[in-house]
Write a structure and sequence with these properties.
Belongs to the YicC/YloC family. The protein has about 300 residues and is an alpha+beta fold. The protein has helices at about 45-55, 80-100, 105-110, 125-195, 205-220, 225-240, 245-265, 270-290, and strands spanning about 5-15, 20-25, 30-35, 60-70, 75-80, 115-120. It has a 4-stranded mixed beta sheet, covered by helices on one side. The protein is rod-shaped.
């Protein structure tokens, strides 16, 4: 199935008190390139993220963004430093006895002591979170691929339509080509008759006429170019049905068809053929633009 190189995919997961989000964006690129942005503390999973993407995306530049954040209410735990609180209590009692103080130690006093009560971040179990992270990326990749396939189907329909148009133009040129030789034969016979004084019509089997027309026919023969164009068109159609990435192959065939078309144009001086060559080049240029977005 034809795939575009442009697309977007996103997925969300939750695991171990963390919210995970993966976003993937792909654009055209001659080769395959993956750039990953994710929190520094989870960089150990970066290679796994790249492998998940590489398994499904063979060509194009993919920017992957992975966010991992603690969910509300699960970020920290309150811890009490009991030895410190006890030491503070004992110190307060000694001060009270020594200076004859009557004030009692209150909860507010204890809580005000630095370090007695502290908020500690939980140390997560990295394994399940890393697994959820990769699963989130896998789902984002599936979403990305679905979009690339949908866009690829549109590109395939467009290219197929242009191939139909090219095939029609090739047939029309093939039908016009023999007329070019006959036109040349008639004009040449007229010129030779004028050079000979116009006293008699030039016979079709006159050796001078036959030799000159044969040279012209060989010089302007486009049968091979037309045959190769028909072959290339058939190859392109088969590529549109292929399961593997075909963007580069399609681009190569379009270049070859453009070369054959240019050759036909340089060999032809018949207006009907030249006009069709112009139409073919316009179709090929549009196909080339589409092929550059195909994986």
């Amino acid at each position: 199935m034809i795939r575009s190189m442009t697309g977007f995919g996103q997925s969300d997961r939750a695991a171990g008190g963390f919210a995970i989000r993966a976003e993937l964006k792909s654009v055209n690129h001659r080769y395959g390139e993956i750039a990953v942005r994710m929190p520094r503390e989870w960089l150990s999973s970066e290679e796994g993220v790249k492998r998940e993407i590489q398994a499904a995306v063979k060509r194009g530049k993919v920017d992957a963004y992975v966010a991992i954040e603690r969910e509300a209410g699960t970020a920290k735990t309150v811890e009490i430093d009991w030895p410190l609180a006890e030491a503070y209590r004992q110190a307060a009692e000694r001060l009270k006895e020594r200076f004859g103080l009557s004030d009692s130690l209150t909860l507010r006093d204890v809580l005000a002591v630095p370090g007695v009560v502290a908020m500690r971040e939980d140390v997560p179990d990295a394994g399940p979170i890393a697994d959820a992270l990769l699963e989130c990326v896998r789902e984002a990749v599936k979403s990305l691929v679905r979009m690339r396939e949908a866009e690829g189907a549109h590109l395939a329909r467009d290219v197929a339509g242009r191939l139909d148009r090219l095939e029609t133009l090739v047939r029309e040129i093939g039908a016009e080509a023999p007329k070019a030789v006959e036109d040349y034969r008639a004009k040449l016979a007229e010129k030779l008759a004028d050079l000979l004084g116009g006293t008699a019509a030039m016979q079709p089997d006159d050796p001078r006429l036959v030799a000159e027309v044969a040279i012209m026919a060989e010089r302007t023969d486009i049968a091979e170019e037309l045959s190769r164009l028909e072959s290339h068109i058939g190859q392109c159609r088969r590529l549109l049905e292929a399961e593997e990435p075909v963007g580069r192959k399609l681009d190569f065939l379009i270049q070859e068809m453009n070369r054959e078309t240019n050759t036909i144009g340089s060999k032809s001086n018949r207006l009907d053929i030249v006009n069709r060559v112009v139409d073919m080049k316009a179709e090929l240029e549009k196909m080339r633009e589409q092929a550059q977005n195909i994986e």
